[in-house]
Specification:
Radius of gyration: 24 Å
Distance between the termini: 86 Å
Number of domains: 1
Shape: globular
Number of helices: 7
Structural class: mainly alpha
Largest sheet: none
Strand content: under 5%
Order of helices and strands: HHHHHHH
Length: 210
């Protein structure tokens, strides 16, 4: 009887280990990450729409108050903030797109390529530079509205105990080393959302300033 049960199990095990089974598992994995990708995209779309609406509302409010010098200055700061933020969001998006689509085995871009800075405009190193330049622009025009003046691509160092700072990994290694393409996309989305959230907070402080 036991031998008979084993004989029934053999074809089941063959199916479980078959290339078709592996392909199915990969398909479901891609679906899972695609769903997470879509879920993370939604709040970012809302954040961008909110930024547009907030700026429009500020312009209406300033106009109703007679376009005072202080009000027009707020609009100027808000427009600079929006441009600077959208520029760095564009830099993040360029890298995100390079990891898509999920459906191919290797994708257009691999994490290994992303971590290599040699002749690579789209590298993690160049993204770190773009993020730090963004902080530099914020400090130049919006310093009084900033709560954190540490360059964006160096903020992860605050998570590392001081005793280990000497051997701290680079921005790219900290966030992306050993990550899959799917995980790299989600990390980039998280960074993008954090940038949008900070920009929204800065805008609120600008609009409420006396």
């Amino acid at each position: 009887m036991k031998k008979a049960y084993l004989l029934y199990l053999i074809p089941v095990l063959c199916i479980a280990c078959s290339p078709h089974k592996k392909a199915t598992q990969k398909y479901f994995k891609n679906l899972k990450y695609e769903q997470i990708h879509q879920v993370m995209m939604y709040p970012m779309i809302l954040a961008k729409q909110k930024a547009d609406q907030d700026l429009m509302n500020l312009k209406i409010k300033v106009k109703e108050q007679g376009n005072t010098k202080a009000g027009l200055h707020k609009i100027m700061l808000a427009e600079y903030l929006k441009k600077e933020t959208m520029d760095v969001i564009g830099e993040i998006t360029k890298r995100t797109i390079k990891f898509l689509p999920y459906s191919t085995d290797e994708g257009i871009y691999t994490v290994k390529q992303f971590l290599s800075s040699k002749n690579n405009y789209y590298s993690a190193q160049s993204l770190a530079k773009a993020l730090n330049n963004y902080t530099k622009q914020l400090k130049k025009r919006h310093r009084k509205y900033l709560k954190d003046t540490i360059p964006w691509a160096e903020r992860y160092l605050q998570l590392i105990p001081p005793i280990q700072n000497k051997n701290a990994p680079s921005f790219g290694e900290f966030y992306f080393k050993n990550a899959s393409r799917h995980e790299a996309v989600l990390i980039l989305h998280a960074i993008e959302f954090a940038v949008l959230k900070e920009a929204s907070d800065i805008f609120e402080r600008i609009s409420k300033a006396n």
